[in-house]
Input
Amino acid sequence: MSIQSLKEKVKISLLVNGREVEGETEPRKLLSDFIREDIGLTGTHVGCEHGVCGSCTVLFNGKAVRSCLMFAVQANGSTIQTVEGLAKDGEQHLLQKLFTECHGLQCGFCTPGILMSSVELLNSGKKPTRREIEEMLSGHLCRCTGYKGVIEAIESACRTNECKGGEN
Amino acid sequence: MTYIGKPLKRIEDARLVSGEGTFIDDLSPLPNIHYAAILRSPHAHARIIQIHTEEAEKLSGVIGVVTGKQVAALTRPFPVGVKVPVKYYPIAVEKVRFVGEAVAVVVAKNRYIAEDALSLIKVEYEALTPVVNIEDALSAESSVLHEEVGSNVVNHRIFRYGNIDEAFKNADHVINKKFTFPKVSATPVENYGVIANYTKSEGSYTIWSNFHGPFTLHSVMTAALKVPSNRLRIITPKDIGGSYGIKSGVFPYMVLMGVVSRIVNVPVKWTEDRQEHLMASSSGTDRVTWIEAAVKKDGTILGLKMKYADNVGGYIRAPEPACLYRTHSNSTGAYRIQNVEIEAIAVVTNKSPTGLIRGYGGPQHYFPLERMIQIISNELDLDILEVIKKNLLTKEEFPYQTASGGIYDSGDYHKALNLALESIDYEEFKAKQKEGWKNGKYLGLGFACIVEPSGSNMGYVTLALTPEERAKSLPKSGCSEGATVTIDPQGGITVRISTVPTGQGHETVAAQIVADALGVDPAMIRVVAELDTLTSPWSVASGSYSSRFAPIGSSAVYQAAHKVKRKLLEIAKNHLNTAMDKLVIGDGKVSVKNDPEKSISIKRLVGLAHWNPEGLPNGLEPGIHESAFFTLPAAKSPNELDLVNGSVTYGFVFDAVQVEVDIDTGEVKILNYTTIHDAGSLLNPNIVEGQIMGGLAHGLGAAMYEELAYDERGQFLTGSFMDYLCPTATEIPKVTIKHIETPSPLTPLGAKGLGEGNTMSAPVVIANAVTDALKPFNVSIDQLPLTPDRVWSKIHHQNAVKI
Amino acid sequence: MNGEGAIQLNGKPKTIFTSLLDPEVLKNCIMGCNELNKQEDNVYVADILIGVAAVKGKYDVTIRLSDLQPPNSYKLIVNGEGAPGFVDAEAKIQLIQIDDENTELRYTYEAAVGGKVAAIGQRMLGGVAKLIIKDFFKKIKRELEKVNIAD
Output
């Protein structure tokens, strides 16, 4: 198979942060690159391209996935949420507020990915223990914070969520 | 209301949690940007016979392919602070000297096509014998990397302070040991990024990169590019995804892409991927140390001899061999030892080149030193705390001049030690440990005392040269940093800093400082963190490294802010008809002390300066625009006796760590980690906690998980995060952080740098704890990381598995 | 890395030895082999596509035969170069007749791998080598059946 034939573009359409997006892409183009380059949402970051650091995590039909391990064409017809889609009507998401309060970020590069995984956790309505939060986080690499503030922010969010009856 | 010292929430967070940060890969500052991919050597040591690029050039979408010969024709080798004639270009020219060294660059319409083209390039190599091991490199028999040098030793100095011979003669015991420290990186989650453009009509380069200094490297880059300094414009993005020193090493790629852009005639963007980053970006040095201590039987350390050899990789590049000298001034750590001999050696081997990293020489230095304290106490059959206390500096001894010229500005080390002991029940632990040993449970407790230098003195790097060699060129000294504080015609306060933050929250702390100086709400202040070498207030020492923002960067902001305050008071004094010393600033206005009705708003004062400059007092310039450059006299160049104060401020970290070792699996579990911190006055306690935890996580990584591993043929083995293991949330132990503050008498805010202390302490304190736990087996930890396999092998007396 | 093994093959050493040196047979038996041609006496060049972990690529391979002692033993020296890196391997093959119909093939090999594939696929290399060898002998058996039927 020659390099040329891999380059035929495919039309895809998907819902991203509530908006219809249409694009044309090579089948081999990664979803992370498509989000950043074709849609222009640069909040999703690329740290390793082999599924370990988690910075590229987005919600794919509500599930946290590593967008660097997916092809854009696999997202055809799906609903994607990225970090840019968290705030509603100018109001920060609870997690965004808590990450700031608990000093859960420093350089901010790994943060969007961690936020998206945390949103999935919060949306699940589970009541995770600290250990469970740490295990969820073990799919994310942060080299700045030592994770302390991150864990506190997520714990706090889950507690607030409980009080609110799981709505977020 | 004051803001300094308060845990103010960070200004940076709003954009970062919304995905609105601007990192290098997010930028598209020019039209027609094309993308580069780099072909890298699969050989550790080889001659390049020929490079066939024709097939790659033919691929649709490829603009051009550039090789070393073309780059060498347009550049000079990078200057470096040693006398040996090593030629380092940003791409291999005739030889490759490490796996991953750049061999060709493809420029194409997009990154995918560029990478496709890489597989179409054929390179003929003649493989040469590699050298990988430091001790091999020291031998004259080893295969030589740089023929012009003739050996693999690229720096070698011997220093003698005090009366070493007498100290060793008077000793009751002389104890000597050998230690090694692994090659590790700090692997920021964001990799290197460069956008480079050559403007032919101006003969100038404009390069955007997530580079953070030190800006001495600007002169290194202009020398390589053969352009006057104001024809290399470097611009850093507002947001950089972590660095911990590693992104200082992006400079060769900046030059490479600049030249590539010039050759192919389009702006070029290069985004490094993780495999490249692990293989060929930068790292700390691996080191071998031979250490000898002359001790009296009561535990007093009379003298130290240390010989250490650092592996700088395939090329020695600026600022190396500073890795050897960064801790020179604090080589005796927290102890009263005035007789010291240091032999410092830098070798090249076929590994990736090194550079700045969190701790920079500190982890490598304290590993042997603090291990020795425990070894000494074991050999003398004394309690380790007794040995520490006997030698530990007391607060009356400050400011303390070390044998090698370091000047510890302030500290109360015994207070920190006692605070640590309060947090752990030492006697109870010892009893539990004894019980445990009887029952097959191996608990251990380790201590480490770390003097944490911060705010580098540019002069220390010249220790690589002999005093005679230094005398031939201009002395280097100082730790200069600049900052500008301006107020625009409508009262908008802006601060420009040149410390190039990479996550440390400089914008927030700068805003706190200016808010206090001008009596305004920090939310009103906008801080510009992007550095532009054509417009920012910068000097050679600018950038972020050696934890210099707290002692130096903040001081430059402080002084610029106070210049603005003085100007505002000068204008106000006229209007309020009062003496300067009767004026106070606060709540957005200048008023007379004890007579708040007599006031004038800052907005009005600023308006006067801009809109009605004729109304200003004599001698005052229009507008409000003040810059300040700050340095400390404590940062003098080394003298003819090789005495130098390598850093201006010195903090202190005392760690006490409890571990349990499973002797069947070799697994080490950290039960708890107590760390006592002294970084002088704390500017923002939140940021401080974050920096301490981050530094600790890096130290933990080096202690337990991380190693850039090579086989005996120089093949790189840990090329992805599946093999180079970084601590995740599940690896971080329970950490207790306590603070004491002995402000620095040298800085306006009393602050010292921090964030590297635990990177320096964690490896050795964990090694000490594990050695303590394994006392029944008579095991001495002298190598890292403490992988289960290594620990198990030590216990069961087999040779550690060689990679 | 290194390894060794033995396998029982149907046929006499002479037949097997001839098959093992036949470029057509080798092309059919080496996993991922696209092209294999005899360049000169005892030298073959091949174009092989191999994947180790996520690192898949084409290698230009030169196979040299030496120390030929037909039909009992020979040495194989393999040099492969490609975008993912390079492979330098040496293998010794011994054929021992068991009985009229069967021969035991014994092999030992030593291989050095370099470049990207070594950096990323380190943990897979041993396993991939075993897989390629196992697959090779499975296919050789089939090839030998064809030859035996023809005989």
Q: What stands out?
A: The helical segments of chain C are 13-20, 23-29, 116-150. The domain at 1-12+41-117 of chain C is CATH 3.30.530.20 (Alpha-D-Glucose-1,6-Bisphosphate; Chain A, domain 4). Chain C touches chain A through one residue (CB under 8 Å).
